[in-house]
Write a structure and sequence with these properties.
Blueprint (H helix, E strand, L loop, with lengths): L8 E12 L2 E15 L6 H21 L7 E6 L2 E10 H13 L4 E5 L3 H18 L14 E2 L4 E2 L2 E2 L5 E5 L1 H11 L2 H4 L6 E5 L8 E7 L10 E2 L3 E8 L5 E7 L1 H12 L5 E6 L2 E7 L8 E5 L4 H12 L8 E7 L1
Parallel strand pairs: 1-18
Antiparallel strand pairs: 1-2, 2-4, 3-4, 5-12, 5-15, 6-9, 7-8, 9-11, 10-11, 13-14, 14-17, 15-16
């Protein structure tokens, strides 16, 4: 996974679409990528190495998407990366090319916690934070912002809890994650606990999912794209979009061990620090194959799959698109 813990980036991406005279279906597609933040504090040589690496990843992604090398230009100007594709159909640009160029593409399969295994420590952490704020009677900054998940009994038997600890509005997530990163709070929570947002659901709520930052079996490496031999997308008979993964030999062995060790527990599929899917394991899966239900439409899933085939970008991207008639 191409992440540098000591170097994070804020990216400003400007996309300009200029409609050619007499041709409203095609445009010149121009992207400008501006690394900011800690990237700017790096010495010149590491900066240049990261820019060169990012340009190579973007070039490979465009070729994977079906563009010939002569169809586009990737250049560097004043520390920024510029990409231009001439006479690009607007539907292509807005449908799946923009996600292809902006998705970092980091992928991993993780073990999860049951809700019941971590809720006690989260309640304790919230009470501690409330005490720090001088409020010993009310809720702290976690419970006041998280709508905690609850699990009822069905026919006298406990429903197996999912890894979702609760839900939050997007405007509250930054504060929640800041609280969870306080050293004294981390000391209260399980050492391997990592709270990761899921895909936004109805009512604009984001599920907060409890995963393990490392495997309980210390000898088992994280399953990333390095263990994927083949990847494709498709749809089920019911029209659900899925990403099909075939692991290589080592990946298949690790995946079998992972699923054997997590019977009736959940594993999560994490893409760029978002849990895009989680599922209960019903037994060891020996074939080294898995189909992931995509929470996105076909076009964005197509972009995600293409990004997962190529090395990850070393920074996330946001973009702004303007159009001029």
């Amino acid at each position: 996974m191409l992440k540098n813990a000591n170097c994070r980036y804020a990216i400003v991406v400007v996309i300009l679409l200029f409609i050619l005279p007499g041709c409203k279906d095609e445009a010149d597609y121009r992207v400008i990528l501006h690394p900011e933040g800690e990237f700017l504090d790096l010495p010149a040589k590491p900066q240049q190495e990261l820019l060169d690496y990012a340009k190579d990843v973007l070039r490979k992604r465009l070729i994977t998407a079906g563009f010939a090398a002569e169809d586009f230009i990737i250049a560097e100007k004043d520390g920024a990366i510029e990409i231009q594709i001439d006479k690009l159909e607007e539907d292509t640009a807005t449908g799946w090319l923009e996600p292809l160029l902006t998705i970092p593409g980091n992928f991993r399969i993780v073990e999860t916690y049951h809700h019941a295994d971590v809720i006690g420590s989260i309640l304790t952490a919230d009470a501690y934070l409330a005490h720090l704020q001088g409020d010993t009677a009310g809720q702290g900054p976690l419970l006041s912002r998280i709508k905690m998940a609850s699990y009822q009994l069905a026919e006298g038997e406990e429903i197996s809890p999912t890894p979702v600890i609760g839900f939050a509005f997007p405007s509250d997530t930054a504060s929640i994650f800041r609280s969870l990163k306080i050293d004294s709070v981390k000391a209260i929570l399980p050492a391997a606990l990592e709270i990761i947002p899921g895909v936004t659901i109805s009512d604009s709520l984001i599920p907060l999912i409890a995963v393990r930052s490392h495997y309980r079996n210390e000898g088992l490496p994280a399953l990333t794209k390095n263990f994927v031999q083949d990847l494709s997308i498709g749809t089920t008979e019911g029209g659900v979009v899925v990403i099909n993964l075939q692991f290589n030999e080592n990946g298949g062995e690790y995946f079998y061990e992972l699923t054997m060790n997590n019977f009736r527990s959940f594993i999560g599929i994490v893409l760029d620090e978002t849990v895009i899917h989680y599922a209960m394991i019903q037994g060891g899966i020996p074939e080294g194959k898995i189909s992931i239900i995509s929470p996105y439409g076909f076009n964005q899933t197509r972009a995600i799959a293409a990004a997962m085939r190529i090395s990850s970008l070393p920074f996330p991207m946001a973009f702004e698109r303007n159009m001029r008639e």
